[in-house]
Amino acid sequence: MKVELISCTPNAEQIVAAAAKLCYASADISTVMEGLTKEKTDKFLEMLTSLGHQSPIEHVSFTFGIEGVSRSLLAQITRHRIASFSVQSQRYVKENNFTFVTPPAIAEDPDAAARYQKTMADIFAAYQALAATLEEKYTAAGMDKKAAEKKAIEDARYVLPNACATKMMMTMNARSLLHFFHLRCCNRAQWEIRALATEMARLVKKEAPTLFRLAGPGCVSGPCTEGAMTCGKMKEMRELFLGE
């Protein structure tokens, strides 16, 4: 897995503070950015946290480049609808270098790992054979090579597994990110998306430390929300995400 913070709103914390200032102070558009020192910016952000007023943080967004994650993860992450996704297409991009994600539990077991590797190799061979057969069929029907290949991989991709690696760009505003971290940094989240969310949280905390001070699973800022399904590791999670 590789995760990069490609871009974000410049002066993100100041922008959020300005939005809060406009809501709670006698400022106008021409002066709203004036006097927003680091100290005053932090004060506005802390006030928003204490009040639970989250709409001002929607004014800033963060764009990530993500690769080496599975299609299984893709199905989970696109459920977060307040976000924008651009994902490498299996319809237009042929899997010439088929890569896949191996769950740690499988990688740690020699027998399971061997079976898994063989299954992936068999699937890739089937994909290549199907693509070649269909391409030959469409070429014989009069299609040019490029069009025939594209149409062939449209259907051949159906044999590709959830493990197939993909890459994407994703943009979320800060409020959506905090919600994403709340759910996906939790120990009960699936291992791959939890690893992704944890790395994303680390990256944005470097860029906007006050804004994302409480970024992480729900238990870092309050009681565990999982009820009877709690992992029971609130102390460890707070140490991990808050350094307490």
Topology record:
Elements: E1 2-8, H1 12-24, H2 38-51, E2 61-70, H3 71-77, E3 84-87, H4 104-107, H5 110-140, H6 145-156, E4 165-173, H7 174-184, H8 191-207, H9 234-242
Antiparallel strand pairs: 1-2, 2-4, 3-4
Helix pairs in contact: 1-2, 5-6, 7-8
Q: Could you give a short description of this structure?
A:
By secondary structure, the protein is α+β, with helices and mostly antiparallel strands. The chain has helices at residues 12-24, 38-51, 71-77, 104-107, 110-140, 145-156, 174-184, 191-207, 234-242; strands spanning 2-8, 61-70, 84-87, 165-173.
Report, as a whole number of angstroms, the end-to-end distance. Answer: 27 Å
Tally of domains: 2
Rg is 23 Å
Q: What is the count of β-strands?
A: 4
The CATH architecture of the largest domain can be named as: 2-Layer Sandwich
Note down, in words, how this protein is organized.
The protein has helices at residues 12-24, 38-51, 71-77, 104-107, 110-140, 145-156, 174-184, 191-207, 234-242, and strands spanning 2-8, 61-70, 84-87, 165-173. It has 244 residues and is an alpha+beta fold. It has two domains: 2-87 and 166-215, Gyrase A, domain 2, CATH 3.30.1360; 104-159. Strands 1-2-4-3 form a four-stranded antiparallel sheet. 25% of the residues are buried.
